Automatic annotation (TrEMBL):
Lineage of producing organism: Eukaryota, Fungi, Dikarya, Ascomycota, Pezizomycotina
Protein name per its UniProtKB record: Short chain oxidoreductase
Annotated SUPFAM superfamilies: NAD(P)-binding Rossmann-fold domains
Organism from which the protein derives: Aspergillus avenaceus
Gene3D superfamilies in UniProt: NAD(P)-binding Rossmann-like Domain
A Pfam family this chain is assigned to: adh_short
Amino acid sequence: MASYLITGSSRGLGLALVSRLIALPASQVATVFATSRQDQPSANLKEIIDRSAGRVAHVQLNTTDQLSIKSAVQQVERQLQGRGLDVLINNAGVQPMTQGGVETMDNLTDAFSINVNATHEVCRAFLPLLRKGQRKVISNISTALGSIAMATPYLARTSPAYNITKAALNMLTKQYALNLEKEEFTVFCLSPGWLQTDMGGSGADLSSEEGAVAVLDLIQNANHRETNGRFLNIHVPGWEHAKGFNRYDGKEIPW
């Protein structure tokens, strides 16, 4: 009976992950801590909480605020009642757009604060609870746009700050994976694909529900020996050899 904490759960992929998790048996998923910056859950998240039979708890968490992070840790610790946290999914992030490319980029500092530094602060704050968990999994939601090796095909994108900070997130993930290796943690980053969310837009490849299924398949099958320190793509049947840049083949993404 695993426990999960997901940042950025009020909408998009985070919300879909919460919904998918409680569709699984309680014998697999005991508790889901769904976090958001707001004091109260969004209407969609509240609906999931109300039908979860107590398996989903809302946690107010502003990932860029140290006091908010500390308060969230204390709340989760109380509700776990001596048990550990099994899985941390760092999903919260921003994708600021820049018309004109990197030369006109003026949003890098804010993007770093949310996409990189906030993830670091959340990771280290929840490490004591994760150390007490059975699975010891940290999954950071990244993107193929953060791959340096694949930067040329994505040059036309108008999100340089997003691409840069996700590349930095990948290195942050690798550092945690190396530092926690001896404790048999599983720390990895994954690309959830181009999803039909507020961030991805309605013309994206996959629904948030499809993305959530594929993301959780990776997370639930993750293990220290095979997954720690890797950068993985989701697998969606039928997308392995799709035309264009986006192929969801379940393989490792080049750094």
